[in-house]
Design brief:
Blueprint lengths: L28 E2 L1 E5 L3 H50 L4 H4 L1 E5 L4 E6 L7 E3 L9 H25 L4 H18 L10
Antiparallel strand pairs: 1-2, 3-4, 4-5
Helix pairs in contact: 1-3, 1-4
């Protein structure tokens, strides 16, 4: 299915748009008639751009995780300062003095030393970190950017161009390789 007249400026300039699987390169259009591929070089540039766009999406996902970890680190630091102040005053309880926090990316789990064995940590009641309004605005902005980039990628995929879909898959691989390279939490069973 070819839609001519999308270019609008006469002279045979028209876009090849198909809602079926296709391998169009030259004269293919994406998102609008202004993104019209007129040469193989422009198509190669578009493919590289699509790969980088998907890599940027993976970067935004990592940014979200890192920002959440930063908030947890701030929370722990603030609690440690509060506990040291309480300890100096002599009003710190044994339970608070033995608490340690563990973060899995989304939740904070506080671990407390058991009274029987001071070296073993046992889970205590989980505590929730509630971000401030400003922190939540930043989290929402990062999420909005993720959503917008992912939606744009989805629109590109809906052109059913085999080359563009392959570039999306390559971008997902490269982005995951770069931005998901982090430690994996292993617990003994």
């Amino acid at each position: 299915m070819s839609m001519s007249g999308m270019g609008g400026m006469g002279g045979g300039s028209h876009c090849k748009i198909s809602m079926l699987w296709n391998w169009y390169t030259v004269d293919a259009c994406f998102i609008s008639s202004t993104w019209r591929i007129t040469s193989k070089g422009k198509f190669a540039g578009s493919c590289i751009g699509v790969i980088l766009l998907v890599v940027a999406l993976e970067c935004l996902r990592r940014l979200q995780r890192e920002y959440d970890a930063f908030l947890v680190k701030q929370y722990r630091k603030r609690n440690a300062q509060t506990r040291s102040t309480l300890h100096e005053d002599g009003s710190n309880s044994d339970m608070e003095a033995n608490d340690r926090a563990k973060h899995d990316g989304n939740h904070i789990q506080v671990m407390s030393k058991s009274s029987q064995d001071s070296d073993n940590l046992v889970p205590s009641k989980p505590k929730r970190l509630v971000p401030t309004v400003f922190q939540q605005i930043i989290r929402a902005l990062i999420h909005m950017l993720q959503f917008a980039v992912a939606y744009f990628i989805m629109l590109l995929a809906m052109y059913y161009n085999g080359y563009i879909i392959i570039c999306i898959i390559i971008g997902a691989f490269v982005g995951s390789f770069i931005f998901s390279w982090e430690g994996i939490l292993v617990t003994d069973a």
